[in-house]
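I would like you to help me understand the sequence and structure tokens below and explain how sequence relates to structure.
___
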Amino acid sequence: MVATAAAVPFLSLVALVVGGWGPLLSLDSAVAERSYTWVRPRPELAHGLQLWTEAFGTWSMRIVCLLTAAWLAVRRLFVTALWACTAVFTANLAGLVTKLTVARPRPEFADPVSVGVGPSFPSGHALMAVVGAGVLLLAVLPLLRGVWRGVAWVAAVAVAASTALSRPLLGVHWLSDIAAGASLGVCVLALTLLAWTFLPAAVRRWDLPVRP
């Protein structure tokens, strides 16, 4: 259900961007222009956004996921650790294939706030922010109780959302790139978790949790 709910907007955005749907492209352009005119005269804001997007960028989130997988393996949660690695690999592969297929140019400004590299659609930062936050969240939730579970959910959503939104504010992505990256990230998490449920019981018993 979650995978379908995330796949529909992602595939719809792919079709609309490839098809050059006017209303979406107009919205993207309007948001890009307004973001640029708001951030460009505020160097402190631009610097803060740049620090944030680098701190929680694609490579940072990949490292977070791999460290989380290593921690899970140390706790003898081998299948869960394998799921974390699979989610990262799947997300990166799906993102790369989509970028190369759609080949959408990034926003361009005469005096850019920041500079992005490679095709624009979907946003790799939005994709990995969702996947990284999701992997870490699902890894620590079993250790939390009561209000702390809610705090963990809020923190994960806040990090993913703020990282994703920093990209159009910095002028390196269109708004629809962010929506596509985030929805693809949710889809990857849901599909890899669904695949885990189809593993044979004997394989799932490889998870042998120890006390934290």
Remarks:
- The first helix runs from residue 2 to 18.
- The radius of gyration is 18 Å.
- The chain has a mean pLDDT of 89.
- Residues 28 and 174 are 5 Å apart (CA to CA).
